Amino acid sequence: MSLSYFIRRCGYIVFTLLVVSLLVFGITQLLPGNAAVMLLGENATPEALAAVSSRLGLDQPAWLQYWHWLSGVLAGDFGTSLRTGLPVGPMIFGALGRSLLLAAAALLLMLAVAVPLGVVAALKRGRLADLLVSLVSYVGVSVPEFVTATIVLILLADPALRLFPASGYVPLGEDFWAGLHHLVLPVLTISVILVAHVSRMVRSEMVDVLHSDYVRAARLKGLRRRTVLIRHALRNALLPTITVVALDVGYLLGGIIVVEEIFAFPGIGRQLIVAIQARDLPAIQAGALVMAATYGLANFAADIAYAWLDKRIQYD
Amino acid sequence: MPLPAQPPALQVSGYGLDYETPSGRFAALRDIDLSIARSEVLGLVGESGSGKTSLAFAILRDLGANARETGGSIRLAGEELTAKSTRELEAIRGRRIAMVFQDPGTSLNPTLPLGEQLAEVLRRHQGLSRRQAWREAEAALARVALKTPAEMMRRYPHEVSGGEKQRVAIATAFACQPDCILFDEPTTALDIITARQILELFERLQEETGVASLYISHDLALVSRIADRVAVIHRGRIVEEEPAAQVFSAPREDYTRQLIASVPRPDRRLVAPAPAAAAPLLEVEALTVRYGRDRLLDRLRGRASRQVEGNRAISLAVRPGEIFGIVGESGSGKSTLARALAGLNPFEGSFSFEGRRFARPAELDRAYRRAVQIVFQHPDSSLNPRQQIREILARPLRLYDAPGAASLAERVEALLAEVQLPADFARKYPHQLSGGEKQRVAIARAFASRPQLVICDEITSALDVSIQAQIVQLLLSLRERFGTTYLFITHDLNLIRQIAHRIAVMYRGDLVELVEVEALAAAGPRHAYTRALLEAVPTPVG
Lengths: 316, 542
Known about the structure:
Oligomer: heterodimer
Membrane topology (chain B): Peripheral membrane protein
CATH class of the domain at 282-379 and 451-536 in chain B: Alpha Beta
Largest interface: A-B, 23 and 30 residues
Protein name (chain B): Peptide/nickel transport system ATP-binding protein
Radius of gyration of chain A: 24 Å
Domain ABC transporter (chain B): 10-260, 294-533
Largest sheet of chain A: none
Number of helices of chain A: 12
Strand content of chain B: 15-25%
Strand content of chain A: under 5%
CATH topology of the domain at 282-379 and 451-536 in chain B: Rossmann fold
Helix content of chain A: over 70%
Keywords (chain B): ATP-binding, Nucleotide-binding, Transport
Distance between the termini of chain B: 44 Å
Pfam families (chain B): ABC_tran, oligo_HPY
Mean pLDDT of chain B: 91
């Protein structure tokens, strides 16, 4: 991987974010009613509306408003929440941090479960273990997360058993064990679909790689079974999986909105729902932009990781 | 008391193998008996599906889940392998018996450096430390005559040539000085000259180490050159085993005789001398083909274009009724030329056909395309898998409005008869046909428009020699009947010397020599590259 490839990819992502910012801004412009109406209510006088509009800059042409908003965002200023009157930036990034914690825990759990499942299924292809993994995967992929969440709640959050709390969030820094406890159910729910998805991918890649000449050659060199499996087969089977995991980050961001709502987890998804319900335009814009950026960066990271791991790919 | 005789390095006796398939049991190997002494090379020759590769994997005890052994024994230096556990086999493989695969492009792990893949065998079997193994591996690479072993150790497979990869694979097989090495067509995936060098390396190492070798190949001529004895395998049975020198001169079995008759021999010409020189049918003038995009970004930055020249100013003339051969290694530009003449590649320069001059692909009109047809190397990709043969053949018939009042179905049937296929093939799909039959369909499609010139682009390269011989016979009989001119592209120098009137030799995009075959036989080549090519090709012994 060359430096120029890296720089070009950086260029792409900047461009993507710009387009996203335009879309986000454009869509909020199209929403019925403007911020002044939302602030003052339906019954405000035209004079009051005009005053507020000019204070918020809503009487300026759209491109100028976009420019002010974008230059603010670049300087780290996402505007002021119409709902709370506080700056949107810290609010969004606090929520993003909590969501990333949730997502990272879900990804880790997913990898820890999905990769071994996929490998076992590939090794026992066509036998009972493989069928079971396939069955679980199909169910996992096809059940929507609110159903999974409900099942998880019924099984693990029974108030009588007091296994795990059904909702809320405690910062890990404040009380580590309580924080971890609160993460368990949402993480479990999110992981189910990811595990189903990625284990299928690992299985099919692994089946291909196990039939390759180089794995046979490794076996015929007398290498131990474990060496053949891990060093020669799994290494190559995991490469395409990286791309799938990056795409799953997209799902993760969507799925997280539902899951955070169900478990009352104060992450970015919940933040966004609250903002939409309150028609808090600056918060909606910031939330959408941050989510799009996260998705873009995840794919960027996957591309870079892939290029670094697979030396065959020639980027000029 | 006499010492007990040393057991052979490898001995297989009474071995049999079945494969369990959805349509029942398939006998892959039957009553296999063979034995290789130390320092001996046994050549195993067979066509595809004969069971030769199955035998190699059976010896190495690496069989698929659907394999069922029907008995027999496999002994490595007297030790029975069939009763060994997986763990015991792991300790034997790579150390006492090793294998070299056909295609080093697929048998090396793409994500590990070459040195790692060699050193890991030494670490596993000789208990060397990481550093010792690395040093030892570097020495092993030097022994297979790689020029910069230290650098080669750190490279990845995609960063080196096919020949270099195969040298690494060979070094790996020899690394632990095994009793026996199985070579499964180790030169088939390589270019002629590279293949020759690998073969020389094999002969040198084999002599130096005295390893017992089983050399598997489809190429009888090659095997008869390098083996001490040659075993011919057909449908899972070894039908004949002879000292190498006698296979060609005194074969005993019918099958061996057929096989030998199919092997192309430059000294047995299959065509009459070319018709007297008339005005050329096709005249190519300074034809150049460039590949790769001329990227806008590069041009703006003032960078040189990244285009590659596939053909550089090729000029040649093909006479009517002639078989014009084009030979060269992969990447020499022979297929590029074929595709340009078929209108499939953009080109610079021009060519004339029957006096009409074409300077751009867009000028190639229907009359030209009717007169000039192409047959590709792989019928699997050139025949639409979702169409029945009759649809495949009806299309050119409709397009070119072949003469006659017969119905389309009758004309398809007639076309099939021309390529000696039964009429009921019309309702089959390509996947129901064998490789040779598919290529016959492709030939029929080309002949549907009654072309004057047919471009054959490596059309027999993917086929077994016996099928190749049949396809060549078919082409010659069609030529007899229709007076067709052929542009025959191949890398098989023995075959082309059998059937062509003149040969153009291509090297890295240039036409380096154009010779009359009769003159070549009498006076030899003039250009050094042509000489190198001819010297690299094994011709049958005797």
